[in-house]
Fold:
Amino acid sequence: MKTKNKKDKMTYTRRNFIAKSALLAGSTALLHGNNFALKADSFICGDKNDRMPEKRYHIAVCDWMILKRQNAGAFRLASEIGADGVEVDMGGLGDRETFDNKLLDPVIRKHFQDEAKKYNLEICSIAMSGFYSQSFAERETVPLMIRDCINTMKLLNVSVAFLPLGVKGDLIKYPELRPVIIERLKMAAEMAEAAGVIIGIETALDAEGEVKLLDDIGSTAVRVYFNFANALQQKRNLISELQILGKDRICQIHCTDVDGVTLENNPRINMAEVKKTLDKMGWSGWLVIERSRDANQPHDIKGNFGANTRFLKSVFQ
Structure:
């Protein structure tokens, strides 16, 4: 039996991806005709409670990092932590054709919405965290995954999705994946534009590299979901990276470092300077806590996320 070499495999994957994208074209066309009112430049988030005062910066936590992935209990826990909102994950991916997403079930979805309202919280974004470990460049059913995410966003009235390119989509280690990743992000951008939503990507590139990538994609429906940890781990200047990207390219921010110490005790981040920079840029939006857990108490969810939330609120609110 003949085995496919790497080039043949990439050709096969590309051919199948294009075919699957074509099959989903009808779904994209339907998105154009819906009554979903969000614009690409808006940052309205799900089920906003009118009692929540208007603030320039809002603080959220990731449901998967507080061990409540696709669990409505995330809202009660986020409230106890002191956050303003929750970034809700699409569920596990593994070898499935698409995410293990329970939010398409109207009963489960209503329960999530009711819990968010009960605790006066917002869903700030929908995350596709499965791509931290899965390949956005090579999985054949990526169009289906993007469609399911956007449908979930529409149902929950959320305007931002988080898409990490992850370890298998690292464009520094695997520059040969750039053409197929750009092709797929253009497809995702078309679907996002049709729905009036934004897909925020996290990459391994520096700010200048991300500016070039966004230019190659050519759509304001795909922006950068900036992660402090990426810049800090690569010893890049955090302030300069923010300034290079500018206000309009950043949709949301994961405002934490790797685990080790909480934000208040982290000498690598001058949070007051970060705020000053974002203020000067004219940026506003959601600061989402992902990590920065105390290495001595890594399992203390309320302690770690509560400390980080209180610190961020003391600086930004």
The domain at 6-316 is CATH 3.20.20.150 (TIM Barrel). DSSP finds eleven helices and eight strands in the chain. The first helix runs from residue 6 to 23. The two ends are 64 Å apart (CA to CA).
